[in-house]
């Protein structure tokens, strides 16, 4: 603690910003500083009285703890204030516009949260007898039916925990199908603009990743793709709309070509929000596609989880779907738990239990509240909002690909050339304006990329303010009248610009009291 000089408002060496004078406390009005919780502890201070535990014979042998556990001793108000203050430093979709591209940071309707917390659903346990959870099984079954209908696919695996886990499920089903045919295939084709988890998943499953270049219009090069096909190709992993926010117009041809070569078509469903209710992947020749319930269907996203990534499967891959899955028969609902009977060709189990129940509840509540017409409007409004931003900024920020985009608008840093201002500088200045920055430097195929996905949640007024803010920042960068403006941003955040490279290379992962190592 800095008892004599207070707490610094900015770190050492951050520059002398006369517009933001330091305060003695480190507080800035309602932006309250909080020390690490370990720094606040005082030995012997307690927030709750607990009875002395009964003495029992230790069963830990020589492993019993001899010293203090190292947790801070705090009063109840200290704990409460600490976490409330920390929460005020978080940016959230409830606080403002979240323009992160490729993340679909939409509003989460509170009725979904209320449904997920209903005692009959929120308090059940996965090891309860099936007879006592018939309602929960019915809910999972109904959600599966919605997903199959929306995608035009005959089967769905509900257990994958998130998008990357869903990719793993799809590629494992592809591998199982090849093995059932007695085939050994070693390559999977992946566009160069793919999400990083696509090649990682293929490699994890033992395949060699063969990258396919893009054309000048940002879409996969069909001729290069066709030239790479062969009897050793297990399939292709393609995102549609792709990572550049563009629809792969040759998708039906891509599917026909890979099928003719004996491979399968995995479609990354991370961007499904753009085509929801407008296009069914099953009609496009897709064999497997994960669906991020935590993105397209409004489960809270971005807080470290949990996610949910059900995988829809074609007729060719359905027999290899993982267990467990819900079956409806004359006796009600049951779980197919074992690799036998109708599941004899299943590649097995991906996780201990049956899926992410809270995510299922929220997703079904979202679907039922919108209905078929509402789900279609979601995609229409998401694409409209992205194009509104694209048109509103295209005269000040360069768009690397011509024409209408889908759910996200992509810009590059060519407009900032010779200004001394980078994509990162723009992002830091956005923090001072009250925005979480857009996705930066991704996709990697675009230099200095700025990827913006407004989703369908945002109003015209919100988008107009965002467009105005971005135009202001770009104009300020171009004029060059204040070279320190961007380099010193952010000024108003709880912490100023940090040495991110140093933090990554020499992270301090453990707190230690002052004067100790």
TrEMBL record:
Which InterPro entries does this UniProt record tie to the protein?
A: Aminotrans_V_dom (IPR000192), GcvPB (IPR023012), GDC-P_C (IPR049316), GDC_P (IPR020581), PyrdxlP-dep_Trfase (IPR015424), PyrdxlP-dep_Trfase_major (IPR015421), PyrdxlP-dep_Trfase_small (IPR015422)
User: Which part of the chain is the Glycine dehydrogenase C-terminal domain?
Assistant: 380-476
Task: Specify the Aminotransferase class V domain's residue ranges.
Answer: 187-302
Q: Which reaction does it catalyse?
A: N(6)-[(R)-lipoyl]-L-lysyl-[glycine-cleavage complex H protein] + glycine + H(+) = N(6)-[(R)-S(8)-aminomethyldihydrolipoyl]-L-lysyl-[glycine-cleavage complex H protein] + CO2
Instruction: Write out the transmembrane intervals.
Output: none
Task: Report keywords, A-Z.
Answer: Oxidoreductase, Pyridoxal phosphate
At which residues is N6-(pyridoxal phosphate)lysine found?
Answer: 295
Tree of life domain: Bacteria
Identify the EC number(s). 1.4.4.2
User: Quick one: where's region Disordered?
Assistant: 1-24
User: Per the entry, which co-factors are needed?
Assistant: pyridoxal 5'-phosphate
EC class, as a word, reads oxidoreductase
Free-text function comment from the UniProt entry: The glycine cleavage system catalyzes the degradation of glycine. The P protein binds the alpha-amino group of glycine through its pyridoxal phosphate cofactor; CO(2) is released and the remaining methylamine moiety is then transferred to the lipoamide cofactor of the H protein.
Q: How does it assemble?
A: The glycine cleavage system is composed of four proteins: P, T, L and H. In this organism, the P 'protein' is a heterodimer of two subunits.
Q: Which protein family is named in the record?
A: Belongs to the GcvP family. C-terminal subunit subfamily.
- What is the protein's name according to its record? Probable glycine dehydrogenase (decarboxylating) subunit 2
Q: Which organism is it from?
A: Sneathiella chinensis
């Amino acid at each position: 603690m800095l008892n004599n000089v207070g707490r610094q408002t900015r770190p050492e060496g951050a520059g002398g910003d006369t517009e933001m004078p330091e305060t003695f406390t480190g507080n800035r009005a309602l932006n309250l500083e909080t020390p690490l919780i370990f720094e606040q502890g005082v030995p012997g201070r307690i927030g709750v009285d607990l009875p002395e535990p009964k003495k029992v014979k230790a069963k830990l042998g020589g492993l019993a703890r001899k010293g203090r556990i190292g947790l801070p001793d705090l009063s109840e108000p200290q704990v409460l204030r600490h976490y409330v203050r920390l929460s005020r430093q978080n940016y959230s979709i409830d606080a403002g516009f979240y323009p992160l591209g490729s993340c679909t940071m939409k509003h989460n309707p509170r009725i979904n949260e209320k449904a997920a917390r209903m005692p009959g659903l929120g308090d059940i346990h996965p090891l309860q007898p099936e007879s006592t959870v018939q309602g929960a099984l019915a809910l999972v079954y109904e959600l599966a039916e919605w997903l199959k209908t929306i995608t035009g696919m005959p089967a769905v695996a509900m257990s994958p925990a998130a998008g990357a886990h869903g990719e793993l499920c799809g590629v494992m089903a592809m591998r199982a199908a090849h093995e059932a045919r007695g085939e050994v295939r070693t390559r999977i084709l992946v566009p160069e603009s793919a999400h990083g988890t696509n090649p990682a998943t293929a490699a994890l499953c033992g395949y060699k990743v063969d990258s396919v270049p893009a054309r000048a219009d940002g879409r996969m090069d069909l001729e290069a793709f066709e030239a790479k096909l062969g009897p050793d190709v297990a399939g292709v992993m393609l995102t549609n709309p792709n990572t550049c926010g563009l629809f792969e117009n040759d998708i039906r041809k891509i599917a026909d070509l890979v099928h003719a070569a004996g491979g399968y078509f995995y479609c990354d469903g991370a961007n499904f929000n753009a085509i929801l209710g407008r296009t069914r992947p099953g009609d496009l020749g897709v064999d497997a596609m994960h669906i991020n319930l935590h993105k397209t269907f409004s489960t809270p996203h971005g807080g470290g989880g949990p996610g949910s990534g059900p995988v829809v499967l074609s007729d060719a891959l359905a027999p290899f779907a993982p267990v467990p899955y819900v079956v409806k028969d004359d006796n009600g609902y049951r779980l197919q738990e074992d690799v036998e009977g109708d599941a004899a060709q299943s590649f097995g189990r991906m996780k201990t239990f049956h899926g992410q129940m809270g995510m299922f509840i929220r997703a079904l509540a979202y679907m039922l509240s919108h209905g078929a017409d509402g789900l279609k409007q979601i995609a229409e409004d998401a694409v409209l909002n992205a194009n509104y931003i694209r048109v509103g900024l295209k005269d000040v920020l360069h768009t690397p690909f011509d024409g209408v985009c889908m759910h996200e608008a992509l810009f590059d840093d060519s407009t900032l050339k010779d200004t001394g201002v980078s994509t990162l500088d723009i992002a830091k200045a956005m923090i001072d304006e009250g925005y979480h920055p857009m996705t930066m430097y991704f996709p990697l195929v675009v230099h200095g990329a700025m990827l913006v996905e407004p989703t369908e949640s945002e109003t015209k007024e919100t988008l107009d303010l965002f467009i105005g803010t971005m135009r202001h920042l770009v104009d300020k960068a171009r004029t060059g009248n204040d070279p320190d403006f961007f380099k010193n941003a952010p000024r108003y955040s709880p912490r100023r610009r940090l040495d991110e490279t140093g933090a990554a290379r020499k992270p301090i992962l453990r707190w230690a009291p002052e004067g100790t190592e």
